[in-house]
Design a protein that fits this description.
Distance between the termini: 60 Å
Radius of gyration: 18 Å
Number of helices: 6
Order of helices and strands: HEHEHEEEEEEEHEEEEEHH
Bound molecules: (2S,3S)-2,3-dihydroxy-2-methylbutanoic acid, zinc ion
Structural class: alpha+beta
Strand order of the largest sheet: 6-5-4-3-8-1-14
Largest sheet: 7 strands, mixed
């Protein structure tokens, strides 16, 4: 009986309930580490690619915004340049998933980021799980930012965002890639929605601060498993990650 119970529990963990464990969020480092100036990681983009095909983050030195789309990586630099990246580059913070949308909804008359967030959350079946979302379409208005590469000794992120570059575009075709984090995990990832954008013509993108569109199809994937890999660097080991406040994260990650 004991052997049977043991086998059952192992089988349960491996396959997950109804096979849902394929819906896994993979993350390297944490947002509070970024907030505390942990801008150098060991994770290469090619390794990140083994954990998912759609994601976002930044690059070592906090060198701009990272977008992963269909297993390809793009950087939006603070000067607005967009380029495809070599898998050997490294990231200090990134999230990715093997995107497999289980739900598709149409959102209409999205007025701004707040309205977008509320309309998306209205479609979530479980408010305490994580989610990945993807939207491809014509976006009427989008406001993105990118951040300038930093040099050591690295300042905290709150001292970087006053120097971020903001881009505003209208009627642009592209893809919004986003991840939803419940508030209880606020220092691990950005609470609420963390979204990046990449235009179809690969000339525009960044970390989304605001957005407006008439109507778009949204693909939604509920993520019931979270794989967090922490840096094994001396800097990370000695960082005081308790100094991060939710207020600092929200100010740094949302529109001013
Ligand atoms: C630093 C960069 O903007 C990143 C990781 O996308 C973010 O913190 O939002
Ligand atoms: Zn971002």
């Amino acid at each position: 009986l004991l052997t049977a119970l043991l086998f059952t529990s192992v089988a349960f963990a491996a396959s997950g309930r109804n096979g849902r464990y394929q819906d896994k969020l993979f993350q390297y480092s944490t947002i509070n580490a970024i907030m505390q100036g942990q801008y150098d990681g060991e994770m290469t983009l090619q390794e990140l690619n083994t954990h998912g095909n759609m994601g976002l983050g930044t690059l070592n030195g906090l060198d701009g915004e990272l977008i992963q789309l269909d297993n390809k990586f793009y950087q939006v630099s603070s000067n607005g340049q967009v380029k495809e990246l070599d898998g050997k580059m490294k990231t200090p913070f990134a999230v990715t998933t093997k995107f497999d949308a289980k739900k598709k909804v149409t959102l209409s008359n999205v007025k701004d980021f707040q309205d977008f967030s509320e309309k998306l959350k209205a479609n979530f079946d479980n408010k305490n799980h994580f989610y990945a979302i993807k939207i491809h379409g014509k976006i009427d208005y989008i406001k993105n930012r990118s951040v300038p590469k930093q040099t050591r000794p690295y300042p905290p992120f709150t001292e970087v965002t006053p120097h971020q570059t903001v881009f505003e575009d209208h009627d642009v075709e592209g893809t919004i890639i986003g991840f939803y984090t419940p508030n209880y995990a606020s220092t691990i990832q950005v609470p609420g929605f963390h979204m990046h954008f990449l235009s179809d013509d690969r000339t525009k993108g960044g970390h989304i601060l605001d957005v407006k569109f008439d109507s778009a199809a949204v693909e939604i994937q509920q993520l019931s498993e979270f794989d967090l890999v922490l840096p094994d660097t001396e800097d990370f080991a000695n960082a005081d990650l308790t100094k991060t406040t939710i207020k600092d994260i929200e100010e740094a990650e949302n529109d001013k």
